[in-house]
Amino acid sequence: MLDDIKKTLWATADKLRANMDAAEYKHLVLGLIFLKYISDTFAARQAELTRRFLDEADDYFLHECDDEMLAGELEDRDYYKEVNVFWVPEAARWEQLRAAAKQTDIGKRIDEALTAIEQENPKLKGILDKRYGRAQLPDGKLGELVDLVSTIGFGDEPGAARDVLGQVYEYFLGQFASAEGKKGGQFYTPASIVKTLVAVLAPHHGKVYDPCCGSGGMFVQSEKFIEAHGGKLGDVSIYGQESNPTTWRLAAMNLALRGIDFNLGKEPADTFTRNQHPDLRADFILANPPFNISDWWHGSLEGDPRWVHGDPPPGNANYAWLQHMLHHLAPTGRAGIVLANGSMSSSQNNEGQIRAVMVDADVVEVMIALPGQLFFNTQIPACLWFLTKKKTARPGEVLFIDARKLGRMIGRVQRELTDDDIERIAATVAAWRGEGGDYADQPGYCRSVTLAEIAGHGHVLTPGRYVGAEAVEDDDEAFADKMRSLTEKLGEQMAKGAELDALIRKKLGGLGYEF
Fold first, then answer.
1. Does this model's pTM top 0.85?
2. Boundary of a domain, candidates 434, 463, 490
3. Which of 268, 271, 325, 266 is nearest to 297 (CA)?
């Protein structure tokens, strides 16, 4: 049911944008969804308080309560803060905006509502994007968008609004990423890749960090994993950083909308030159840094303490990202990073030397080759690196998984890993670590390899080099018999081809063509 609602909402919202660029329109739509979430959770808390104030059996019961007293109590901000609900001034509440949706100044009213909410809630300061008054939508379209967002139903419980709106927000993020194509990938990592990272790392407590967090998908999926395995919201502390200001706001809204406490730094900033969490040592790091970026270097990074395994080349940031994340890991922490396949074998500009030092230091735990066509923004083949400072199982070995044949097509050019694929990968890693089940190498899919063997291959970490060929089932048909059968089929096809060729020539000859 909710899937149908999400699709209908998207189709309508996409139609309303007319000729407006998806990258600009995204902020209008997602901002309105967030505004309605804030207002709905506030209204639900207000309704709950009203019931409790009038219930003699409740701790909140107000003796000798009249309308004036009730109204006054309902305006006490502490009742909302204690349950992590944002305070919404009366003029900023959704019903006020909905009533004015057809007014010509609706954009200005929304901007004023967002400003008032920021003033009342310091946590949201600088996060809400006030661009509605200058939105380049055709007349009346913004009001129609307000009406559309008004149709999303949430129920009376604050948690209901959070859950439904969170799913709608996440769905829209994915749709906008697809609509924007290459640019969309800068703020959104496809869900199946995020789920794979989370399933392998299994973050269940402690500090979770993403140094290039985009719209915050890694954090949201981590919280979902925790809740699905019996934990609760708040079992982990969220730390992130993002250089793009508008994407930084998307992430903050995405997390605030779900009631997730977070620290994304004081401002959007470059992770390498303006590290917002210099003293952080995280239990889990999940990241999808931009692939192969060439303009990352700055002179201030010369001799940086993060470059423990060698100075990363100024022309490619891949090994800077890997070492940045190792630097920020707690002694027993684990990191999962998405990178371009070239990172596994490149020997340019001392990348091969850095990789060799990392392998020999035994900080590389698992390498996974991914299938193609998983990303919106690039066809560059990708892989997953899993790093740890101290292996708790199988020291001196690396697990290689070749997942290139997994996944299913969900569109003409888009592939995703299925839940079964993700479960298989996670179960393989868990068994290898001794955390459940028996591990065994599977030709063509996975193999545990010693550091000595990896060194013998020049420290190349491409899984296909180690897992071998997939075992072929023996159907007892002798090679000579197979060859005879195939030859007969080929002869039949050639004979049919000759017949068709003769028929075509005959038809064309009847039309006066000569051969």
1. no
2. 434
3. 271
